[in-house]
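Record format v2
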Amino acid sequence: MLRYVLRRLGRGIVLVAVVAVTTFFLLYAGSGDIARTILGDAATEETVLRKQQELGLDRPVSVQFGEWALHAVQGDLGRSWFSGQPVVDAIGSRVAVTLALVVGATLVSALVAVVLGVLAARTGGWVDRVVQAGSVIGIAIPGFLLAIGLVFTFAVTLGWFRPTGYVEFARSPGGWLASIVLPVTALAVSAIAGVAQQVRGSMLDVQRQDWVRTLRSRGLPERRVVYLHVLRSAAGPALSVLAVQFIALIGGAVFVEQIFAIPGLGQVAVQATGRGDIPLVLGLVIVVTVIVVVVNLVVDLLQGWLNPKVRRS
Amino acid sequence: MTLSSPPAEVPANGSLAASARRPLFRRVLHNPLGAVTLVFLALVVVAAVFAPLLAPHDPNAVDARNVLAPPGEAHPLGTDPSGQDVLSRLLFAARSSLLGALTTVVVASVLGVGAGLVAGYHGRRFEASASAVSDLLMALPTVVMLLAARSVIGPSSQATMAILGIMIAPAFYRVVSNAVVAVRHELYVDAARVSGLSDARIIGRHVLTVVRAPAIILAAGVGGIAIALQAGFDFLGLGDLSRPSWGGMLNTAFSVIFRSPQQLIWPGLAIGLTCVALILLGNALRDELERTGGPPARRRRSPARSRPVDEPVHSDDDRRESTADDSLLDVDRLSVGYDQPDGSVTVVVPEVSLTARRGEVHGLIGESGSGKTQTAFSVLRLLPPGGRILGGAIRLGGQDLARLSEREMTEIRGRRIAYIPQEPMSNLDPTFTIGHQLAEPLRITLGLGRAAAKEHALTLLARVGIPDPERTYSCYPHQISGGMAQRVLIAGAVSTDPDLLIADEPTTALDVTVQAEVLDLLRDLQSESRMGILLVTHNFGVVADLCDRVSVMREGRIVESGSTREVFAAPQHDYTRMLFGSILAGTEPRGPLAETGPDPATKGLPA
């Protein structure tokens, strides 16, 4: 088991390293005129050159990378070209907000999707058809469109929630909850749709297995067979889909944060992207990749717990 | 938006394209959902292509005196906050949306299909590196990577969409390489290679036909994702602001959501409907392909068609004793059928009657498809989905099992009837330990405590001949052998001390040596507990070895029934005689293929 964890961890570290190197070179090689962009068209050639020197852009990319990497392994991802703020601080102050949204949406979708998927697989008939049709639509509708629809319906028309804005948990837990209901819903719908389809499918697959019949032949009650045994086997594939959805949710958060004016990573990302703030963008890519690696590691551990066979591979 | 998961599960196998006899396009038009989505998408394409002709105004013409105008003659859909004509912008925006989606789909499919063909066809080294790259791309959060790319390439929509194509290419790669690997080993591809066709010709003719359908389905889904993402970027203001776009229009509308919420309607509908249409089109395509590729309808066997049957032959003592008090299980004119999707019922067992007695082993023998397993599952009331008992009675003690509710039946299973399956390895839950699976029925069905259940389970494991019960108890099913697993299943079946044990070909899947051991074990257990056994088998050896009594089954009916000794000594029914006749054992053993003696190759040659 320990070897299994270590191998996964090793693969994760390699992934982060590969992403860091690739992104660094792509970003810095493509950032030729960045000093000009920062200073604006009115700046003289001389000031542009001085800015380039100041940012270290006049040196070869490999030298820049060496310096950056040396700092990066010590936890220093450089400073924003615009605000001068350390990248780690700029991201660190926002990451909790985004994670709250994404983790919240993931938990909500896991719960709702399992209920819907099991319901569809167990009852069949029109319930099944409604869940299936709903899943297709849920997957197809872009999340930001749904978010706008939610703002319009529940905030503008019905007035149940404030249309935008974020309340910090420390200031008012109730207000915090109210401020993330709509964003989390907007994010969760597509994840629910994807995971519910998978839960339904694997429930149907597992129910056909021979051992389910044997368990029933032992006189175990239907509930126990379905919710303990079948669901446990069906949970593995569903968990894999949930992991994929989690990554997609980080992307979805970029749009949703913008619509609901939530100060998370998405806002930082959009601003940094628009201005060409390369150190910040690079930092974001690395932080998000680390999050993805951690999530995948947790999912792998859960898979190992769910299905002992996985532990060997 | 689920970027990383293509919306339609694309079955990557050869049967897909092989089934596409009629042109896919025409078949999708006959599918209601397919027709509606295709027509809608065609309208979007027409709008995009003929936007300059259709649009009543210059999409970028600003009219500050006429902002947020309601729909009217001059502006059929009204004007936006800068007085631009909504309809004209909507039409022109369709251009950039479709162009962007096209860019993504072309880049993704060219890269993915190309790499997939090479990896699947030539394999090995290229496949290893292509798969590594594909895994890497799939693991990355698409939106964040696109934002990063956007920060250096600027607001060029096409470049961003091309990069999206690169990031989505692994979806095509996986589908194609799987399909190619599947088809590469097909005989007709071998034949083409042997007949001297070049690799390029083989790929073009045989491989591409297989890959085409799944790739088209995937392309529809990718198109939907691309339109959604491009609209999202435009909405964030990261797109090319100089041209009208649906996302940009939505952004403008969102900023006046309190003043004029109806502004949201048109761009919202355009994005939403186009995305949904593409995804639904993918689903319709898949449905059409799967409909023809589905399994052939089960052979119909209606009860009306069945010819008159001769009464089963009973040896005298059998008939006399069948009504006696020691009867344990009495199956009386049982018929079993399966509901078909078209509402009809396929009868698999038209009528079967048999009696098993307390303390006896009753063999149910017949060739495969004779309905013996269906009969066994009916007694357990565990027929596969769609199967049900159509008529007749299954009496166990005083109760008719065919009429019990599911709840009442749960009380019977385990306590009164137990079951030993055919395939040991597929009949243990892979996610729980052997111990858990043995102890659970003891606790739930018999109501033992945790410790008592474990102790009893360990005793059972020792009883069925498992050398190290403690170790096996904590093993998972994949850690033990097939013979061991069958012993575990036997232990589980007898654990709750049933009156009747149904054993469905309990030795078929085992090695010959293990078979004998398992049969011995069954015989010993039976004589210890005096339970009755209904033994389903196709093996006369097993019947001779174990059974007191035998029923011969053919096409869902019992044709002969009696004590094993009598049936073996003097089979009455033609079919029984035929079955005996087809056994190789007892016939004259064939001699060695070659004469023993000097090596035939050298025989007769001059020394």
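The first helix of chain B runs from residue 14 to 18.
The first strand of chain B starts at residue 313 and ends at 314.
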